[in-house]
Amino acid sequence: MSGFTTLAVHAGQEPDRLTGAVIPPIYQTSTFVQDGINVLRDGHEYSRGSNPTRNGFEQQLCALEKGASGFAFASGIAAEDALLRAVLRPGDHVVLGADGYGGTNRLVSRVLAPWQVQHTAVDVTDLDAVRGAATARTRLVWVETPTNPLLGIADLAGLAELAHEYGALLVVDNTFASPYLQRPLEFGADAAVHSTTKYVGGHSDVLGGAVVVADREWHVEAVNGFSPGSTLAELVAFQQFAAGAVAGPQDTYLAARGLKTLALRMERHQHNAGQIAQWLTQRPEVSQVFYPGLPDHPGHELAARQMDGFGGMISFRLRAGEAAARRFAESTQMYKLSVSLGGVESLICWPSQMTHGCVAGTENAVPTDLVRLSVGIEDVEDHLEDLELAFTS
Ligand SMILES: *Cc1c(COP(=O)(O)O)cnc(C)c1O
């Protein structure tokens, strides 16, 4: 039992021992009865610390990411926050992707900055730029690949080597690729993070996040004589329990259910996306298509080596500029105008004032003539018809 889809269906999802229910129950409980003081049945005491539904999902995702431990949170941002605070201390520095999820940039630059955490945002597809940004205080190199929204490809093995040279950890936000297409820990990354809201959940019906860590020693400075652990897993587990942004049982049930079909969904997402990207390159209205599956994409060969497919996200620029891009994003019918991504239904957005509105006007701003598609699993003919209509409306 080691195939990806076999693990997706079975890891952490064993039938209920008591009743034989094939699908593990949703343990909708805050606390667990003790058989004597501190005598715990099955190790569960209180659902912030552990809950069987959450733990099952954590094991399932961890098996797919080939990690040592997984931790589920209430949102992707909550997962990121826990990992950042597990590792960073005042005075530390983070190298961050410039072309990345706007909320990650906001978390580091606005929530952590008052705690004396510094950061530099760079083009993570350029190893020299990352090296140029790293300092003796760099504790984390935090990247997305493919990047958002320009779908650049970062060299994970190269980045892991570089980060470790500086005594830093490499963290990869694997939300866009999903573990079906890319497993960062296999390239030497120390942790993968997810917004499980996206492809993992896959149905746009739940928020969630996760951290999956490799089995590494990692020492942080003790604070007031207290050191919360010596492995990355212990440090993240401590944050999850002590700061408490855990995912609830209903939410982790939905995420676990979605994750079982990840492989099937991703195959269809990327089958559609490949055809649509190719079609877009033929459109006179389009000046540039960003999709790593296109042979002239600058990261195409790296993506082909490092990923098992090219994913379901496409961005493209409209020749006629900002107004045309806005109009296009507001003109599709099947593609719903919306932030977020990774659900079975297709979504369209205008990143410069939607997903990336919080970096508008900064050096990390995204082009205003850019449109981003989260290509759903609907029939490809319907995609092309919808996009065609939006071009001519
Ligand atoms: C959505 C997203 C996040 C944030 O996750 P939430 O679940 O919305 O908190 C982080 N990284 C990436 C790449 C995302 O797409």
TrEMBL record:
GO cellular component: cytoplasm
EC nos: 2.5.1.48
Keyword terms: Pyridoxal phosphate, Transferase
Modified residues (N6-(pyridoxal phosphate)lysine): K198
Gene3D superfamilies: Aspartate Aminotransferase, domain 1, Type I PLP-dependent aspartate aminotransferase-like (Major domain)
GO molecular function, one term: cystathionine gamma-synthase activity
Cofactors named for this entry: pyridoxal 5'-phosphate
SUPFAM superfamilies: PLP-dependent transferases
Superkingdom classification of source: Bacteria
One BP term from GO: cysteine biosynthetic process via cystathionine
Broad EC category: transferase
InterPro entries for this protein: Cys/Met-Metab_PyrdxlP-dep_enz (IPR000277), PyrdxlP-dep_Trfase (IPR015424), PyrdxlP-dep_Trfase_major (IPR015421), PyrdxlP-dep_Trfase_small (IPR015422)
Pfam families for the chain: Cys_Met_Meta_PP (PF01053)
Similarity comment: family membership: Belongs to the trans-sulfuration enzymes family.
NCBIfam families on file: PRK07811.1
Protein name: Cystathionine gamma-synthase
Organism: Kocuria subflava
Source lineage: Bacteria, Bacillati, Actinomycetota, Actinomycetes, Micrococcales
